[in-house]
């Protein structure tokens, strides 16, 4: 339990005791209080205390008493011993608690004792969660949506790990179905055109027209020449697919690892077909009465599930749809492999797919609450106020590889997590490369580097950071010192909020706020002062800040430089 949790529990217990005392002496009506929910929050205005409580509003209806009156009686009966300095009633009945700063000092002890584990909580209780993200179509290079999804999904997985979950990162390779058929047709056409000329075969109208297809066809020719011209079309297409698909998957892995994303599992859709899991999923839906046949195809009766549009599971040609395979994949996640929870990061264009998938999971008897989907909005690359759509190098759409050649990986990962997944994001290329405090990742990294610099100079003078037991934290009384301590104390709460909301953007926001609290402190308070005791306390404070900045940046897989 975090320091903040301990304080909240203490105050909540005192509130309960105060209500009982007020009822005992007749100050408040004596009937039993149901559903006591003393919610404590940190006020936005620091003049309103360290914590504020709305319990008087919650009890007003039960006790048939005005909230303000209830708040005043609770405040009058509160035990103010120990850390509580004063209690005030504000507005219609909020109770504001002002605490002795001694509770904040324990934050430094916790950071020292827990080290890199500071901030970790037990929210997940070791439950197994699979975070599936990116899962880009292996028929071509990754685009900007994949770049955002990669940073978002990987950082979300880290947050869940810090929140106490057993996390598996997974990439789902769509190596079966229509897109692979289209991939094969495209490769086949380019192969023949390279050997026999453009007019030898018409390129498929719905084919993949990217230069990467031509590149793969040329590579294939370098290996096999015209060997496959005389082969049957299906044999030729399969040979091209087998070659190009593995090359593309290897490229995906290389780009993602360069982006600091390391997957625990690369799961192939084709395995679901080979193992009979797609057929088994369709059979289960049929057994439960959720399928019907029409015009030679097998349909999922989504209307029976309360949804508007029915979906094809098996086409007229007998080939299962991508949706059918996706249902089998989620059964595999939640049942076959037994994950307690599955979290998918999908593009916003999959919005309508979420309800269908959760309903399909429920239709085969799996609790749909075990599946959550984070929908990610579009990203626009901006340069000098203009939208950038094309790669300078290729003249084609900008890929993940283009982006991380253009800006640092640190900047890319930070910028993609600056806004919630549900918000559109404008990625400012110029700002991402700027070496100034206007660049948010530079601003946070500079706070870490500045602290390292201060401590390095003091170490050169023979002054080292002391242990918590050796310093006098009570000397830290300046407003900026206390605000910095409060921000350090908030990390476990921020991780909890981020995990519960599935929003890693909360962590970039927290890192920026912590950097700001440090910079404000630095501008107001010298560390290397003549008073050795105060100097040692401040050194301990900034060293704790350094550690927490490193923890959060590490969670985001962003470097924490010691010099800048």
UniProtKB/TrEMBL annotation:
Q: Which UniProt keywords apply?
A: Aminoacyl-tRNA synthetase, ATP-binding, Cytoplasm, Ligase, Nucleotide-binding, Protein biosynthesis
Tagged with keyword Nucleotide-binding? yes
**EC no.?**
6.1.1.19
Q: Which reaction does it catalyse?
A: tRNA(Arg) + L-arginine + ATP = L-arginyl-tRNA(Arg) + AMP + diphosphate
Question: Matching Pfam families, A to Z?
Answer: Arg_tRNA_synt_N, DALR_1, tRNA-synt_1d
Residues annotated as domain DALR anticodon binding: 444-564
Q: Does the keyword Signal apply?
A: no
InterPro entries registered for this protein in UniProt:
aa-tRNA-synth_I_CS (IPR001412), Arg-tRNA-ligase (IPR001278), Arg-tRNA-synth_N (IPR005148), Arg-tRNA-synth_N_sf (IPR036695), ArgRS_core (IPR035684), DALR_anticod-bd (IPR008909), Rossmann-like_a/b/a_fold (IPR014729), tRNAsynth_Ia_anticodon-bd (IPR009080)
Any one GO CC term of this protein is:
cytoplasm
Residue window of motif 'HIGH' region? 136-146
Cellular localisation: Cytoplasm
Q: What CDD domains would the database entry show? A: ArgRS_core
Q: Which GO terms describe its molecular function?
A: arginine-tRNA ligase activity; ATP binding
Q: Where is the signal peptide?
A: none
Query: What SUPFAM superfamilies does the database record attribute to this sequence?
Result: Anticodon-binding domain of a subclass of class I aminoacyl-tRNA synthetases, Arginyl-tRNA synthetase (ArgRS), N-terminal 'additional' domain, Nucleotidylyl transferase
**Which GO BP terms apply?**
arginyl-tRNA aminoacylation
Assembly and interaction partners: Monomer.
Q: What is this protein called?
A: Arginine--tRNA ligase
Q: Which organism is it from?
A: Candidatus Monoglobus merdigallinarum
């Amino acid at each position: 339990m975090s320091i903040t949790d301990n304080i909240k529990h203490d105050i909540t217990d005192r509130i309960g005791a105060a209500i009982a005392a007020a009822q005992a002496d007749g100050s408040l009506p004596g009937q039993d209080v149901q559903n006591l929910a003393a919610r404590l929050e940190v006020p936005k205005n620091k003049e309103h205390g360290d914590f504020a409580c709305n319990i008087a509003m919650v009890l007003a209806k039960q006790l048939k008493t005005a909230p303000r009156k209830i708040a005043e009686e609770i405040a009058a009966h509160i035990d103010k011993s120990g850390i509580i300095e004063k209690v005030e009633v504000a507005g219609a009945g909020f109770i504001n608690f002002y605490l002795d700063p001694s509770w904040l000092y324990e934050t430094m002890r916790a950071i020292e004792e827990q080290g890199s584990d500071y901030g970790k909580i037990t929210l997940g209780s070791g439950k197994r969660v699979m975070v599936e993200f990116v899962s880009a179509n292996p028929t071509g290079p990754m685009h900007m949506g994949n770049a955002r999804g990669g940073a978002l999904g990987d950082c979300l997985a880290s947050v869940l790990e810090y929140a106490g979950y057993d996390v598996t990162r997974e990439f789902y390779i769509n190596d079966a179905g229509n897109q692979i058929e289209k991939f094969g047709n495209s490769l086949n056409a380019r192969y023949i055109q390279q050997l026999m000329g453009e007019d030898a075969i018409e390129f498929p109208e719905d084919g993949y027209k990217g230069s990467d297809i031509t590149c793969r066809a040329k590579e294939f020719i370098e290996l096999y020449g015209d060997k496959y011209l005389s082969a049957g079309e299906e044999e030729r297409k399969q040979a091209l697919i087998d070659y190009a698909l593995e090359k593309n998957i290897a490229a995906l892995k290389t780009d993602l690892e360069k982006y600091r994303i390391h997957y625990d599992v690369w799961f192939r859709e084709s395995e679901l077909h080979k193992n009979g899991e797609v057929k088994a999923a369709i059979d289960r839906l049929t057994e439960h009465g959720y399928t019907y046949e029409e015009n030679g195809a097998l349909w999922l009766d989504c209307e029976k599930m309360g949804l508007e549009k029915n979906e094809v599971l098996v086409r007229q040609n007998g080939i299962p749809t991508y949706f059918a395979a996706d249902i089998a994949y989620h059964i595999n996640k939640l049942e076959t492999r037994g994950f307690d929870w599955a979290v998918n990061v999908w593009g916003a264009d999959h919005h309508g797919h979420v309800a269908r998938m959760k309903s399909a999971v429920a239709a085969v008897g799996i609790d749909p609450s075990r599946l959550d989907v984070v929908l990610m909005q579009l990203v626009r690359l901006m340069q000098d106020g203009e939208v950038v759509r094309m790669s300078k190098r290729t003249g084609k759409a900008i890929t993940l590889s283009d982006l991380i050649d253009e800006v640092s990986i640190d900047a890319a990962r930070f910028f993609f997590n600056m806004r919630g997944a549900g918000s559109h994001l404008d990625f400012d290329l110029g700002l991402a490369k700027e070496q100034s405090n206007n660049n948010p990742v530079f601003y946070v990294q500079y706070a870490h580097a500045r602290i390292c610099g201060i401590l390095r100079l003091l170490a050169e003078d023979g002054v080292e950071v002391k242990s918590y037991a050796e310093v006098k934290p009570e000397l830290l009384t300046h407003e900026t010192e206390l605000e910095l301590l409060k921000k350090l104390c908030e990390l476990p709460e921020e991780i909890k909020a981020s995990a519960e909301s599935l929003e890693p953007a909360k962590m970039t926001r927290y890192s920026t706020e912590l950097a700001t609290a440090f910079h404000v402190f630095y501008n107001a308070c010298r560390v290397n002062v003549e008073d050795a005791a105060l100097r040692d306390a401040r050194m301990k404070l900034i060293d704790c800040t350094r550690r927490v900045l490193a923890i959060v940046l590490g969670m985001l897989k962003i470097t924490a430089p010691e010099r800048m």
